[in-house]
Specification:
The chain has two helices and seven strands, in the order βββαβαβββ. With 116 residues, the chain is α+β, with helices and mostly antiparallel strands. It has a single domain, classed as Ubiquitin-like (UB roll) (Roll), CATH 3.10.20.30.
Length: 116
């Protein structure tokens, strides 16, 4: 079982293959934003990696980050927990002014993962 460490929250065992956005909410108790429902459209689920950043991206993540001109962050909705990782949750409901984090993301990466 991969270990997910979230700065300020602790370290958690996460089922292998679980989406990072879901692991942050369900396993680590982070009030992670995902305004588009985890579909790589809005970038509100972004995190910063401290250690264990995955080497590959989905095409949807790569295109969305480039379109927004974002560097140094990743979209937690487009990452699966398949190894130990440490992240900083930088896009949270607290202080966002939003009434909720967004629609619940599906268990599988959406749109279907095309790895690059």
């Amino acid at each position: 079982m991969p270990k997910l460490t979230v700065e300020g929250f602790g370290t958690f065992d996460v089922p292998a293959g679980k989406r990072l956005v879901l692991a942050l909410e369900q396993d680590a108790g982070v009030d992670q934003l995902h305004a588009c429902g985890g579909n790589a459209r809005c970038t509100t689920c972004r995190v910063e990696f401290v250690a264990g950043e995955p080497a590959r991206h989905t095409r949807a993540e790569q295109e969305r980050l480039a379109a927004k001109g974002l560097t140094g962050v990743r979209l937690s909705c487009q990452i699966t927990c398949d190894h130990d990782m440490t992240v900083r949750a930088i896009s949270r409901l607290a202080g966002s002014g939003r009434s909720d984090p967004g629609p619940a993301p599906a268990d599988e990466i959406t749109p279907p993962a095309e790895w690059v």
